Amino acid sequence: MLEKLWPFGRNRVRKAFEEALEKAFKETGELLEPLSELQEHEDHYLLRVEVPGLGPENLEVRLEGDQLVVEGEKREEKRTKHLSEIVYGRIYRAYLLPKDAKKEGLEAKLHKGVLEVRIPREKRPPEPPVRIPVQEG
């Protein structure tokens, strides 16, 4: 159907669309948000962030108040390419720490393109709900 409407064929449309997106991202300098997951364990949380192609020298993990920040950059090598589908640029993601997360003793490890940050948990009794009276007015 698409071939009937667009005489250049599906692959050329796809390529033109991808090139337009790539150009738009490069011109605006947008940051890439890495895919991630947060697992809850009894004594810690485990944050896993996909950062393929980045090494420890290209990554920074830091605490900013109640947020854990992961930042880095994957730089494009300058050479002749016949195909380029790899995404390059700066990554940035800030994660709000859970209330029972400790800010001391965090550990970050990089293994096969996945950054794992172990966040210890404090043992605290659950907080009871606080009732807020509703006033008429």
UniProtKB/TrEMBL annotation:
Pfam families: HSP20. This is Hsp20/alpha crystallin family protein. The keyword Lipid biosynthesis does not apply. Transmembrane segments: none annotated. It comes from Thermus tengchongensis. Belongs to the small heat shock protein (HSP20) family. The lineage of its organism: Bacteria, Thermotogati, Deinococcota, Deinococci, Thermales. InterPro entries: A-crystallin/Hsp20_dom, HSP20-like_chaperone, HSP21-like. Residues 26-137 form the SHSP domain. Signal peptide: none annotated. It comes from the Bacteria. Keywords: Stress response.
